[in-house]
Amino acid sequence: MRSGLTLATLVALVVVGGTWGWAALTQPFPKEEEVPICVDTQVSAGDVVLRDQVVVSVFNGTRRRNLAGQTQDLLVERGFVAGTTDNAPKQVRRTEIWADDPDNPAVALVKRQFRRARVVSGDALGPGVVVVVGSDFEELRKKKVERVKAKTDATFCKATSAD
Questions:
Q1: What's the farthest any 2 CA atoms get from each other in the chain?
Q2: Which of 87, 91, 133, 89 is nearest to 110 (CA)?
Q3: Beta-bridge partners for 120
């Protein structure tokens, strides 16, 4: 009697363990959560915004090949975080920064890297500050502006790598 009960218990354990093992084996692998490149962050007037906190997406508004990629490489060398690069939906002569708030500290910091860039209202083509490089672009300013103080309360897409 005791042997039969022991055998039945062991069989039950093997069946339960086998069922659990099969279920674990056939489950899909967990997917890694995609971390966003930046998250909207509130800054108050007087707060400092640094280059490594600002994501910049660059778009080519000319017919010159790879201008967006080359410009983004220059901005990354200065410490900005790379967003996306692509061709702009339209060609522009003068370099434009597409933003609704020209006083935004992230926009101001990016604008200060260019000689003749202007801030205009435009679509968010990519994450962070959107730059559309125009045919007048030759190089960034020699002076590398590292930080700006927020003039007013603002929100910008802060690089998650800056945390």
A1: 94
A2: 133
A3: 98
To the nearest whole number, what is the mean pLDDT of the chain?
A: 90
Boundaries of every domain in the chain: 38-162
Question: Which residues, in sequence order, are CB contacts of 57 under 8 Å at separation 6+?
Answer: 83, 84, 85, 125, 126, 127, 128, 129, 130, 131
- Predicted TM-score (pTM) of the model is 0.77
pLDDT score of 25: 84
Q: What is the DSSP letter of 46?
A: T
pLDDT value at position 163? 62
Report, as an integer, the average pLDDT of 92-105: 91
The torsion angles phi and psi of 11, rounded to 5 degrees, stand at -65, -45
Q: Which amino acid belongs to residue 42?
A: Q
d(Cα 95, Cα 93) in Å, to the nearest integer? 7
* 156 DSSP β-pair partners: 41
The residues pairing with 98 across neighbouring beta strands, listed in sequence order, are 120, 130
